[in-house]
Amino acid sequence: LGSGALAGSTIVLDRELIARELGFARISQNSLDAVSDRDFVCEFLFCLAMIGMHLSRLSEDLIIWSTSEFGFVEFSEGFSTGSSLMPQKKNPDMAELTRGRTGRLYGNLMSILTTLKGLPSSYNRDLQEDKEALFDSVDTISAALELFPAMLPQLKINRERMESAANDPNLLATDLAEYLVKKGVPFREAHEIVGALVANAVAQGTKLNAIALADLKKLSPLFDVDVVDVFDVRRSLVARRAIGAPSPENVKAQIKAWHERIGRGD
Asked: Is residue 248's pLDDT more than 90?
């Protein structure tokens, strides 16, 4: 668009007119930069790699949650296959492939960065290598983005198993420390007290909520009969009302806000 090989042209050109006709918002201000710059490719590949990273982490969560040790979710047959050896096993193929292909997105980004790092200024034939990395990343992330809207609605959620896991009283150890903080105990001291309680519970093979009030009072006289409320997981969730925290009200508000944002195309 008037930049030539590196130093523009002696022919008088209306570069702004050409840019408008071709749908560009503006023209480049440096001919050398115009022909040698591939920052836009690197930035785009980084964005695709970052999207892939988030999809990979989501895939990892779902894969772990689908194991027999967790049993929180189950993939539908359309997005999983049976094991060729173990009859009881269901392989989360699509999630695993998404996780694996994220490495390709990283590799494509590093490929073009490595190509660029040793190039002298101006155009070099090496720059043709950006096409393969760019197109492969677009194809890879496009397939993943088409997959998840189809796969996620078909996940089977085991609410009973998840609720049972969430109801482990030891998960509320932080809430127990905050119980003391609300009664004026510095958090560092409250943390130490609850840490000792956890250690005692583990040593005795019991849970925090099974410790007698009299034993709690040995570590802090501020423990009272209302401490039993700390071990209600639903109460704990409702109490987490700070912006960004996972109270049911906050979660619903976030879902609504994101639906509205996506609808606006922000």
From this structure: yes
